[in-house]
Amino acid sequence: TYAQTNEIFHLWPGAVPGETLPKNPSKMENDARDKVLRVTEVTDPTLTVFAPKASNSNGAGIIICPGGGYQILALDLEGFEIAQWLNQLGFTAFVLEYRVPEKRDGALMDVQRAMRLVRSQAEKWNLEPNKIGIMGFSAGGSLSARLSANFDNKTYEEVDKLDEVSCRPDYTLLIYPAYLDQGENRSLTPELMVEKSTPPMFIFATADDPYANSALVMATRLRDAQVPVELHLLPYGGHGYGLRKSSEAAKTWPLLAEKWVNKVVAGNLKP
Fold first, then answer.
1. Which CA distances in Å does 246 have to 31, 237, 240, 250?
2. What is the average pLDDT score of the chain?
3. Are 205 and 249 in contact (CB under 8 A)?
């Protein structure tokens, strides 16, 4: 129902770097069990654009990375539904279909390319190129953190002029992120090179989420690097709730995230 009216961009004009399979439309699971639309295979990564009403636009854009353990993408729960919520707040949202299953290197190339594409065409969507952020859920939170900490890392050979554009997000939101604590003794995953230039972050998780340690170690490292970070840890809520109002966590994170991201976009993060 969403894609019929939304513009879709293919990230890679020619061959998809590092991809062995031919480009095909994304494969979906036939039954949407528990009312979640699952993408099971992506070989031709795309961005689906959700634009707010012109009268409501705040000139900022956010790329959304759905979760799914790097195996699938929970496309509506952690993609389209989030985009529509962001539109109400005035943001132009871009839902990223990055490569799955189990293509973590490819996924990082995809998210870098996506950020470059959005920033290079900011004018087209009436966006300010310095107000483009990233937001991810679960494995999509991992991918958003990887982009934020590794934006200087050249993961693929330049395809065109677009690849000269910076892929550093201006701000990052991690909602119940996973896989950030794969270092020794559950410390920060070594791949994540957090430095002072890492973008400011908003992190939300719950203590009963099996992946919650990811949020804690990331916040600690950001604090050590003197990067502005806002961390929220609620006692209950589990994992994978998106905006679906079944728990206190699902009701709470959007309010906190909205307040934080509006401050960042307005340039008011400092005390």
1. 22, 9, 11, 7
2. 94
3. no
